[in-house]
Amino acid sequence: MFGRGTNTTEPKEPYGSSSSSEVAFPAAVNSTDMEQQKTEEVEPIPPPVTLDWDGPDDSGNPRNWPFIDRCFQTIPPAMFGFVVTFASPVYTTATQQIQDEFHVSFETALVPLTTHTLGFALGPMLAAPLSEMFGRKYVYLSSFALFLLFTMASGLAPNIAALCVFRLIAGCVGAPALAVGAGTIGDVWDTHKDGGLAAMFFIMSPFLGSSLGPVFGGLISYHKTWRWTMWLVLLIGGPMYLWLIPFMKETYKPAILKKRAIERGLPLPPKPKGSEAIKKILLVTLFRPVHMLMTEPIVLALSLYTAFTFGVLFLFFAAIPYSFGTQYHFDRRESGLIFISSVVGIILGALTFGIIDRTFYKRRYEHAIANGRKPAVELRLLGAMVGSFGLPIALFWFAWTCKASIHWIVPALSVIFFGFGMMLIFLSAATYLVDTYQYLAAASAMAANGLLRYGFGAVFPLFTIQMYTGLGIGLATSVLAIISVVLMAVPFVFYRFGKYFREKSAYDTLKD
Fold first, then answer.
1. For the chain, which end, N or C, has fewer CB atoms within 10 Å of the first or last residue's CB respectively?
2. In this protein, which residues make up the domain named Major facilitator superfamily (MFS) profile (predicted)?
3. CATH number 1.20.1250.20 given to 62-259
4. Do 279-506 and 62-259 fall under one CATH topology?
């Protein structure tokens, strides 16, 4: 789901060792020249040093670890991703307290949500060089500790400006847990064989964190101040960090092989020059994703679709308290509990994707491989085709039932369909992008998706209240529903014409 490739290549001499070489002389040579050549010391040029596994059954390869170990290594990135995204909307139900304490408008009180989410878009640029230099484990160790530190600083913020800045930094240093986590799953599992559930668990965790944040934030801010929403993040993240970190293993192949080579006294490959390493990192994490958004229809269309659904989720962090507060006089605790519907929808969406993957996709994948053919990668879009119906149903339902004359449970149930559709669309888009683009191109495609997704998530809350007060709940949500109807075409178009766009791509894509 997150990466392609096999565990090893054909067995070879480890780390580029070579046998002694012979020196060949020309057939026609005079005795003087031969004497000179005999006295000269000939130094053979060593071949390039290559680090690789000892063989397909190498116990150091994370994919060969015992099943229990691999399951445990899946937990940290999922839990870190959950806590980081939980922290993003956790305080939104307490914005009235922030307004009162800092004497700011409702829109200004929402800006820390925007800055924290914006950090998710910027953070992967920090994660890439750190993981290249130190491995994945140390990215988790350093970035999550800094995330907890700046979350604590947010809780101690003396004014709204400081809160915005601390939340931005917390988002930036927390984002590597999201960016590097996908790589950890790919290190440990072969998602075409036995890692589908692990990958789905990892993807689902940030969405659950985003949906549960307002639930617990509303409950705790009802009895405490908004600062306790930050202390809640620390109370969850701190003990989890201390418990998980000592048992984590490094899963990044270059880091494992480098450590092994040092222990065996073997030479290491030459390090790239600093400028070349920085250029490569910027290419993969910034320039190439932006270029793919501008030139690759597959990346642009699917990223826009997932970004819109993510933007609507973050819009709901302001729209649901406003809508249920004005129509049903819900307080922040009751408004937060509405997001339980989103959690139910996310779980149902993940289960539906698993069923589709196990029945339709896996059967056709195995049948194609058995017949020496490549499976149609567009089969990955079946989940998005199903989920695309969930968004307009949910939004139109919410738009015209969230009114005082209709019981509150009716619009609350509509959010289930939203979570269901959102989860299916994102899972399908992610697997389709990774299976379509190869190696670094796949990483850049997902980086492009994340850049647009978190950009929408940062911006949408800023215009929510103006939109809902100006147009009304029904018309404002209907505008979103109409956009979702237009975007429904995306998975269907690429299911039908995806092969054409793949073959026209300037990047390394899966060709039929």
1. C
2. 73-499
3. yes
4. yes
